[in-house]
Write a structure and sequence with these properties.
It contains four helices and four strands. It has 108 residues and is α+β, with helices and mostly antiparallel strands. A four-stranded antiparallel sheet has the order 1-2-3-4, with helices on both faces. It starts with 6 loop residues before the first helix and ends with a helix. The relative contact order is 0.18.
Length: 108
């Protein structure tokens, strides 16, 4: 059974789809959108050798600390988002571990 996507993940995707990624740049657009939904970046890195995407950012949003992967295509104009919990990519497990480290650190 698949987990429902949080409202914050949907809002983030909508904000990023409306952003001018060329003018703003991926990181600036991502940080502005996360600011609007109360989220944070877990990591943001290049994807050398990936056939579809040049960058991926793992983000944490919502009261349940949902983790999403935000991919930027090679043209720098289009994003693709996946829920880390639903993704089969190895980087999704890394993103969830990063979330757990952040949440564990906040609990102490």
């Amino acid at each position: 059974m698949s987990k429902e996507v949080s409202l914050e993940v949907v809002q983030l995707e909508m904000l990023l789809n409306l952003a001018d990624l060329i003018a703003q740049g991926f990181e600036t657009a991502l940080l502005a959108a996360l600011n609007d939904v109360g989220g944070s970046v877990l990591f943001n890195r290049r994807l050398d050798g990936d056939p579809r995407f040049q960058r991926v950012a793992a983000v944490m949003v919502g009261p349940e600390a949902d983790v999403a992967l935000v991919f930027l295509d090679h043209s720098g104009t289009t994003i693709h988002m996946e829920s880390a919990g639903e993704s089969t990519r190895m980087i999704a497990r890394e993103a969830e571990k990063a979330r757990d480290r952040v949440c564990d650190g906040e609990a102490q």
